[in-house]
Amino acid sequence: MATLSSSISGAGFHFTLSTTVTVADSLVLDTQTLHILFDLDPHIYADQYELAQRPGYSSILWGTTDLEKPVSAVDPGGSVLLVTADTSRLVHVPANITFDVPLHARYGRPVADVDADGAYHHIVVKRPLGFLASNADGEHSHGEVPPVLRPYVSLDGWPSFHMSIIPDTSTDGPFNVVIPVGVLDDLAWVDIGTATVMIAMFFYLLHASFRTARKLSRKLSTKTD
Q1: In whole angstroms, what is the distance from residue 51 CA to residue 48 CA?
Q2: What percent of the chain has pLDDT over 90?
Q3: Which residues in the chain belong to E strands, given as ranges?
Q4: Is the overall model pTM greater than 0.85, yes or no?
Q5: CA dihedral (147, 151, 154, 155) positive or negative
């Protein structure tokens, strides 16, 4: 009925996880909704405001949504992203539906040892899971939840009707992403540099404030005369 394949592209802190679902006859989507599940490592996050601007699908995000926090400050359980295809414009023929989901990496924990290639951290990104959920008036509106989806059914807003997994045609394992991280030995210099810049900015702002006050005082004196 349907098959799924995924790929990942990009480097550094920004990349795209693309998933294509091939539906033999999109007529089945008249009574079922198409979903892709992303179970994200705490090092990885999806920007819900960025996702809202993406055409072709809607999304729900559970877990830590703060974009600025480093990985050391977020829930170690990571987050869960569910996207739902907009199939309103499909015709009843074989269809390829592609979900391009932008993802970002958080700042990782600094490392003590640096190899010849530099300081990097390897992150395992689980492959997306695709499934079809029957509408309330579908032929099979209720049924047993597939085992791989059972950990997620308690999430608020999760589809509550019969679900069937879309087979992944790839035999590969999870994706691997490499991100640069800091080095522990460099932290002292980073702190010194940050403190120096902050102190310099303080004195600059102090100087600018006194200069502006003098200008305003001269203008006021001129008007009084």
Answers
A1: 5
A2: 24
A3: 2-11, 14-23, 32-40, 44-45, 57-63, 79-85, 95-105, 120-125, 129-134, 163-166, 175-180
A4: no
A5: negative
